[in-house]
Amino acid sequence: MRYLMADHTDVGIKKKTNQDSYMIKEAQTKLGRVFFCVLCDGMGGLANGELASAAVIRAMEQWFETDFPQILRQVTDVEEILEKVKNNWYGTANVLNLQLAQYVEGTGKRMGTTIVALLMIKNEYFIMNVGDSRAYAISNQVYQLTKDQSLVQQQIDLGRVRPEDAERHPQRNVLLQCIGASEEVLPDFYRGTVLPGTLFLLCSDGFRHEISEQELFMQLNPSGLVNEERMKERLVYLTELVKSRREMDNISAVAIKAVQEG
């Protein structure tokens, strides 16, 4: 499997700084090409959110460059690899949570960040999610792969809020968890098969608040995205669309299309 990739970020129409951060990595291994992407949406006011998201990105980048190669040297079975990855990510998320909390201890300030991380290896995808940034898969329709760790999602699960009202709910930005401001971080993990032709989308909540899944599918239908330039154009178009609809948050998205080699 090979991957086409595009990314785009925008500070938006209101905020002075962009507190979103993301990184994209790809490597050739003995199990074939491996793809890794992490996206974070920082919060905490001014530089604090930017610092939080950037710190998590740096830590995950270091994991990919140092710890992950060690895992691949130790085991070759994908089941074992992903179990070790899960344990690594859980530990990393909680170490970072403690470090960020200690950084602002005594200042009266708070800082934190969401994280959605995607690893694709040997035709498998593995995702970690904390907060309300999202991962989608788009093929014949749009599939939301992650579930928001948010107050509104909790109220939907309890039957107190209708799903169609979620994006207009006054508490839509209230998180149940984030890295840096939770007592303990309990990430959600997701796994599935990477099918050729599928487009994966990682995005901050600012990217998807003002657009529907139908609009996502119309612009990011993988059958029409034949190269990275076209993918980039669609991400820019959707970003400008949500800005025109007065989205106030930072806006970031990464698109990855899986393509069969040969």
C-alpha Rg, in Å? Answer: 18 Å
User: How much helix, percentage-wise, in residues?
Assistant: 25-40%
CATH topology: Phosphatase 2c, domain 1
Classify the beta-strand content into a percent band: 25-35%
Please name the fourth-level CATH homologous superfamily. PPM-type phosphatase domain
CATH architecture: 4-Layer Sandwich
- Helix count equals 6
Uncertain runs are none
The structure class reads alpha+beta
Shape: globular
What summary fits the major beta sheet?
6 strands, antiparallel
CATH structural class: Alpha Beta
- For the secondary structure, the number of strands is 11
What average pLDDT do the residues reach? 94
Q: How many independent structural domains?
A: 1
CA distance, first residue to last residue: 9 Å
Order of secondary-structure elements: EEEHHEEEEEHEEHHHE
Task: Walk me through the structure.
The protein is an alpha+beta fold. The chain has one domain (2-259): PPM-type phosphatase domain (Phosphatase 2c, domain 1), CATH 3.60.40. The chain is 34% helix and 29% strand. The chain is built from 6 helices and 11 strands. The strands form 2 sheets. Strands 2, 3, 4, 5, 6 and 9 form a 6-stranded antiparallel β-sheet that branches. Helix 1 (47-74) runs antiparallel to helix 2 (78-103). It is globular and about 50 Å long.
